[in-house]
C-alpha cells in the first residue's frame, strides 16, 4: 500500500472518529464513550506466518463504545488499522495476489434507546492485498417504524455526496448495491431502508479518497437530524418488543451475511470490537408477523428496494 | 435412499417427537406446544431443477414450538423430511455424488425460563446424496451456571447409550467430536459442557440406526432429571442478565458456525423452523467479563474440553 496514501487515510479516519464521537456525546447529553485502545503483538516474518494454519493479525485500534445512554442504548464507533496474513481459505475469496493484507477504516453502528429512532451503520475503509489497493464503505439506515421523510433525508444527503464526485460517486449504482448487499435472503427482506454501499474502488485513488471523505463527512448530517426529529416520541411496551424483534433480524444479518463481520472473525480480528455492532437486546419469536394494517406491518412492507431520493 | 430404511427412520423420528413433546408438556405443567405442520410444493423434475441458480427443496415437516411456558421460555421440537437439489456451491461441501439429496430427522432446542436450568440441544437425522447415505446427530448441554453433577449425569446417560452399541457407538470419539464441533473459535470457548456428536456414519445401516434410536431415546433421561433438580432454584436480576448474555453466545454459535443452520438456510429450508433454535431474548455487552471468583466466572472457566463421565 502506498505509504503517503495510507498515512493520509489514517489521519482522516482518526479525525472522523473523533468528530463523530464528540457529536454523538453531545447528542446523547449524558453518556460518554468508553475509550479502549488496543495493540496486537508484532507480526512474525512471512515464512513463519505462512507456516501457521490460521490467519495472523497485527496492528491496533481505537475502540469507542457507549452503553446505556439517554439516546443511545449501545453505540460503537471504531477505528482500526491492521495488517497480516490471510488464511489460504479466506485468501481465495478476495481480489489481489498473495496473502499479505492491510486494512484501515472507521466502522460504526448505533442502536438508540427510543424505538422510533432508527439504528444506523456507516463504514469507510482502505484495503490492500499485495500491490492491489481499494476503497470500500457505505451507510445504511434501519428504522423500526417507517417515516418516509427520514429515509428521503438519509438518501438525499448521501446522494448529494455521491453527486459531488461523479462519476466515481455514482448514487444510482451504490444505492442499488446497498439494496442488494443489506438483504436477508432467508427472510426475503432488506435489513432497513438502505443507503449506499461500495467496494473494490481501485482506480484514481486520490479522487476516490476525496469521495470517501465526503461520505464519511456526510454521516452526521444524514443521521443526526433524524435523531433530533424522533427522540422525543413517546413509546411503550409494544414498540419496545417490536424493536427487540427487529434487532434480532439485525443480528441475523450481521452474523450470517455481513462480510465485514466474517472478514474480521475469519482473519483473527478482535472479537469484541467486531461484535460491538450487535445490540444490547435482541429477540426471536416463532413465526411472528405484525398485525395487518399496523405500523409494524407498514415497516416490513417497506423493506424492499424503493426509490427514496427526492428532487 | 433405501425406501424401507427411510420409512423406518420416519416412523421412529415421528414417534420420538411425539414422546418428547408429551413429556416436556408434562414437565412444563402449563404451556402447550403449538403444532405447525407444513408442506412444500412438489419438486420440479431434475432438468428444470438443475437449471435454477439456487437450491430447490420439497417435502414437509411437523414443527412443534412452545413459548412463554412455566419451565420453558422457548422450545422447539421439529421433525422434517425434505428432498431436493443442492446448489452447486453447497454440493461441494458435502460427501457423495450428484445434487439430489434427502434429509429427515428430529431436532430440538430448549431454552428454559430459570437461569439455573441449562439449555439443551438434540438432533438425530438420516441424510443421503445420490446412493450414499449416512446417519448423524448428537446432544449437548449449555448451562449458565456450573453444576458438575449435571454435566456428569448428561454425559453418563449418553455414554451408556454409546457403550451399548460399541464399536459403532464410541463415546470417547463422539465426546471429543462434540467438544470440537460446539466451539466458538472467536471466543476461545465451548458453547457449553458438551455431550456427543457424530456424522457421516455410513456403514452397517441397521446397527447404526439402532444406535441412533438409543441416542434419541436417551435424551429425556439425560435431560429431564437436571430440569427437575434445578427448576425450583430462586433467581434474580443478576442471573437473568447473565442468562441473556450466554444466550447471545448461543446465537453467535448457531448463526456463525452451526452446520445444521447453514445447511437449512443455504438449501432453501424453512427459516422459521430452522431459527426456532434461537432464544426469545439474547444480549450483548462490550467486553463483558464476570467478576473473578464468581459463579459466572466458574462457568466460563468450565467451557473447555473436560472429562465429565464418572465410573
What count of helical segments of chain A does DSSP give? 10
Number of strands of chain A: 10
Helix vs. strand class of chain A: alpha+beta
Give me the Rg of chain A, rounded: 19 Å
Question: Which CATH C-level class of chain A is it?
Answer: Alpha Beta
CATH arch. level architecture of chain A:
3-Layer(aba) Sandwich
How much of the polypeptide of chain A forms β-strand, as a percent range? Answer: 25-35%
Mean pLDDT of chain A: 94
Spatial order of strands in the largest sheet of chain A: 1-2-3-4-5-6-9
Largest interface: A-B, 31 and 31 residues
Task: Please explain how this structure is put together.
- 2 copies of one chain form a homodimer.
- With 311 residues, chain A is an alpha+beta fold.
- Chain A has a single domain, classed as Coproporphyrinogen III oxidase, aerobic (oxygen-dependent coproporphyrinogen oxidase).
- Helices cover 41% and strands 26% of the residues of chain A.
- Chain A contains 10 helices and 10 strands.
- The first copy, chain A, has helices at residues 3-28, 46-50, 88-91, 148-163, 171-181, 205-230, 237-257, 259-266, 271-274, 295-301, and strands at residues 34-39, 56-67, 72-85, 100-112, 119-129, 132-142, 183-184, 189-190, 194-201, 281-283.
- In chain A, the strands form 2 sheets. Chain A has a 7-stranded antiparallel beta sheet with strand order 1-2-3-4-5-6-9. The first copy, chain A, has a two-stranded antiparallel ribbon with strand order 7-8.
- In chain A, strand 7 and strand 8 form a beta hairpin.
- In chain A, helix 1 (3-28) runs parallel beside helix 6.
- The longest helix of chain A is centred in the first third of the chain and has 26 residues, at 3-28.
Amino acid at each position: 500500500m502506498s505509504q503517503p496514501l495510507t498515512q493520509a487515510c489514517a489521519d482522516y479516519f482518526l479525525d472522523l472518529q473523533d468528530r463523530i464521537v464528540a457529536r454523538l456525546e453531545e447528542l446523547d447529553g449524558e453518556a460518554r464513550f468508553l475509550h479502549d485502545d488496543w495493540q496486537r503483538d508484532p507480526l512474525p516474518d512471512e515464512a513463519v506466518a505462512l507456516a501457521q494454519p490460521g490467519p495472523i493479525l497485527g496492528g491496533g485500534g481505537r475502540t469507542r463504545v457507549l452503553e446505556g445512554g439517554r439516546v443511545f442504548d449501545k453505540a460503537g464507533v471504531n477505528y482500526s488499522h491492521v495488517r497480516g496474513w490471510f488464511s489460504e481459505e479466506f485468501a481465495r475469496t478476495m481480489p489481489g495476489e498473495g496473502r499479505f493484507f492491510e486494512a484501515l477504516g472507521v466502522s460504526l453502528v448505533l442502536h438508540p434507546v427510543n424505538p422510533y429512532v432508527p439504528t444506523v451503520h456507516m463504514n469507510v475503509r482502505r484495503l490492500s492485498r499485495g500491490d492491489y489497493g481499494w476503497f470500500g464503505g457505505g451507510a445504511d439506515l434501519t428504522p423500526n417504524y417507517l417515516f418516509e421523510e427520514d429515509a428521503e433525508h438519509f438518501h438525499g444527503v448521501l446522494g448529494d455526496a455521491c453527486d459531488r464526485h461523479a462519476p466515481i460517486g455514482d448514487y444510482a449504482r451504490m444505492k442499488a448495491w446497498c439494496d442488494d448487499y443489506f438483504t436477508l435472503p432467508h427472510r426475503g427482506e432488506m435489513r432497513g431502508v438502505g443507503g449506499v454501499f461500495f467496494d473494490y474502488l481501485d482506480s484514481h485513488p486520490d479522487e476516490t479518497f476525496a469521495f470517501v471523505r465526503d461520505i464519511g463527512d456526510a454521516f452526521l448530517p444524514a443521521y443526526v437530524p433524524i435523531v433530533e426529529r424522533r427522540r422525543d416520541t413517546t413509546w411503550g411496551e409494544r414498540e419496545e418488543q417490536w424493536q427487540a424483534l427487529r434487532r434480532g433480524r439485525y443480528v441475523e444479518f450481521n452474523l450470517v451475511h455481513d462480510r465485514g463481520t466474517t472478514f474480521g472473525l475469519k482473519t483473527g480480528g478482535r472479537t469484541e470490537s467486531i461484535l460491538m455492532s450487535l445490540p444490547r437486546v435482541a429477540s426471536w419469536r416463532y413465526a411472528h408477523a405484525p398485525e395487518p394494517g399496523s405500523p409494524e406491518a407498514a415497516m416490513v412492507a417497506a423493506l424492499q428496494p424503493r426509490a427514496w431520493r427526492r428532487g
